[in-house]
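Here we describe the complex-level prediction in full. Unlike the single-chain runs in Section 2.1, the two entities below were treated as one system.
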Amino acid sequence: MERTMSVLVNDRPGVLARIAGLFSRRGFNIASITVGSSERAECSRMTIVTSGDDRTARQIEAQLLKLIDVLEVEDISAERIVSRELALIKVDTTRETRLEISHILEPFRVAIVDVAHSSITVEVTGDTEKVDALIGLLRPFGVTQIARTGVTAMVRSQTV
Amino acid sequence: MQASEQLVNQGRAPLPGGQDGMANEGADTVSAAEAKRPALPVVKTGADLLCSLLVEAGVDVIFGYPGGAVLPVYDALFSAPIRHILTRHEQGAVHAAQGYARVTGRPGIVLATSGPGATNLVTGIADAYMDSTPLIVLTGQVATASIGTDAFQEADIVGITTPITKHNYQVRHIEDLPQIVADAFHIATTGRPGPVLIDLPKDVTGGPAARVGLPDPSPLGYRVPTGPDEAAVDAMAAAIAGARRPLLYIGGGIVSSGAAERLRAFARQTRIPVASTLMGLGAFPNDDPLFVGMLGMHGKYAANQAITHCDLLIAFGVRFDDRVTGKLERFSPHSRKIHVDIDQAELGKNVAVEIAVAADVSLAIEALAKRELQPDTAEWIAQINGWHADWPLDAKRGASVLKPQTVIDLLAELTGRAAIVTTDVGQHQMWTALFYPWRAPRQLVTSGGLGTMGYGFPAALGAQVALPDRTVVCVAGDASFQMNIQELQTVMENDLPVKVAIINNGFLGMVRQWQQFFYDKRYAHSRISSPDFVKVAEAFGALGLRARTPQEAEQVIRQALSYDGPVVMDFVVEEEENVFPMVPAGKGTDEMLLDWEEA
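The structure predicted for the assembly as a whole is:
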């Protein structure tokens, strides 16, 4: 089962290495990991997408909390979350395919961030399924490069 | 000054007044030394500041080895009121610091230079991490401007030791040092203890600094569980009250939390039998009728039967290590399980438990004792006594050939069961664990988790530095002793009267035993030769003695114990003796081999 963990850490040199090392040493999987600054000064927030059963998830959480530089760990897999990643996709174009591609792109609300004679670069933001879907649709035209940020996520606020 | 006293008090043991029994005989001198703490050194450099902070933190001795990148620190130590023990190898220094820490409960301090000095510490750091031994490891580093350039004697010791330390630091700016030192001592000694490394670039220790007092520790993100909540105590108490075949399964956590006295009282009050891991030996006295014995791969028959047949397993300060559990599917299959440990990550890691409690085990036992539980265990105790009668441990005294078990038995008798005993790893370690009748926590100092050959002798050296008036015996293997034999010069130089007892069977005994059982007696490279240990001892200026029979062994031990100085005893024992019982790898604890014919 896929798990999303939101981890608040001290913003110090080597923290990413400690966390990556912990995952590899104990055989935990990392599907993606993103790091950036958080709402707290001198703290970063990591979003780690991993997989495992409940027992593995509890073990990952406990092992992360043992690291001195880890302040909070939240397994947000079961929560209502907002989850986003950004991808840049470079796809081959010809005079014949350009129109068809722009029809495909339309419902995805993407930005075309670079245009050349024989290719365009598309910026798409969304959850992982949306990004996967767009890449799948563009592949037949010749996708030459993909760069994805990995998932960043947050629990939704209560609406009622 | 207040902050430093607070820190010292947070160290686990030995507490004034003495929860830990025998180990406190040495503790009185330790407290006295603390009372008249020396004046703080003059501070001109970063290294001076380091020494000043260490003195404030209560450090009285450092085990170390100099080199280029730590020259500023050594220069400061030249006039600092801290004793320095120069070992003959950095591995000796770190194991000595472990021995010091294990017998006192206070952090052992190690100092080594950058590069090879630091990497030579790695085995000891990993060992301390596995066995939850508090260490402060100080390593020199090349100057900050050279870090990352592959400079002479540069190694990324922070990167190398990240997975084997509780935490580590590199001091990039001298103004960070006071907080780092305060936090390092706090982290090393509280919660589940462990090694903390501080990497010290040469320009930071060699640069200018002014005195700063030791601040209060404030490691952001570090949390330590305290006592159990009421709901947890209720759940544990209900389980215990309803149990018919309860078994206490205790380990090193009892020792590090200073819970031995409370455990004794609790077991006696509830009449619950006690089985111990290797690391827990001494926490419960062996001569107590409730003591079932060591359990696990080479555990006593009765202990492994008890863990298989109990209906409630009360795991206190243990980690369900594979050497204890054997095949997980067959481990204690009929029991509900309570697990109390201060390390949350140990709960449910290897074995699923019904009642998992992240708490200081000492406080958990205290809370449970108040419930005055009285499960009816009479029938269960009778069943355990039956297992004892079925397969008692036999020390095999009186035979003409010298059996290794006889040596341990004689050592126990002639030291009045009161020695501090260190071991290396292998057959002699298991015989020592099984045949020495442990009385007090911190009496046995052994490498449990990592299984480090060469650990015992330097650990004995460190233990003797901490407790100069105690008899310290290192039971070594002929192969293990050769791994850190150079430390003979260190014990000579420092007048440390350590008694080494080599169980000399001419083999890597445990390797040979496995080859006998599981590799068709193909003894590949497990036959090992040794120098003449008596002559080696004499070359260093120590007393060397040899025994080949039980009678000679008794004479040799008497002579060694009455000799005022280091002694190496070479016990030439039966070569192919095996350790029994034995749970083969991948088998359940109830599938013990009891002798060779069965294997």
